[in-house]
Amino acid sequence: MPYVESALEQQDSAPIRPGVQRLEVTEEEAGQRLDNYLHKRLGGLPRSRIFRIIRKGEVRVNGKRASPETRLALADTVRVPPVSLAAPEASPRRPSGALSERIAQSIIFEDARLLVIDKPAGVAVHGGSGVSFGVIEALRALRPEETLELVHRLDRDTSGCLLIAKRSSTLRTLHALLREETGFEKRYLALVRGAWDLGDKRIDAPLRTDTRVGGERTVKVAENGKPSVSRFRPVQFFGRFATLLEVELETGRTHQIRVHAAHAGHPVAGDEKYGDPAFSESLRALGLHRMFLHAHSISFKWPEGGEFSINTPLPAELGALIDRLATQRRPGPQAAERPRPAAAPPARGAQAAAKAPGSRRRAARPRAR
Question: Which residues are designated catalytic?
Answer without folding.
Answer: 155
